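Example 5.3 — Putative signal transducing protein
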Amino acid sequence: MEELLRTNDITLIPLAKTLLDAQGIASFELDVNMSILEGSLGILPRRLMVRGSELEAARRVLRENGVVFEG
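Solution (predicted structure tokens):
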């Protein structure tokens, strides 16, 4: 799995997952439990992972839909 994005924005990952799901690209969210443990202060970022073979396609889907992310 490769990191697609890392963010503290709690709305960005659900948006990205929805866009990726619509294109048949599986994704997996990491660091959810750590974020919850820190009290939802937004200090610890969450990561969205995709298969390495789908990384470029996932980036393209997000860019085409105006999602701003590093990578």
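Remark. The chain has a mean pLDDT of 88.
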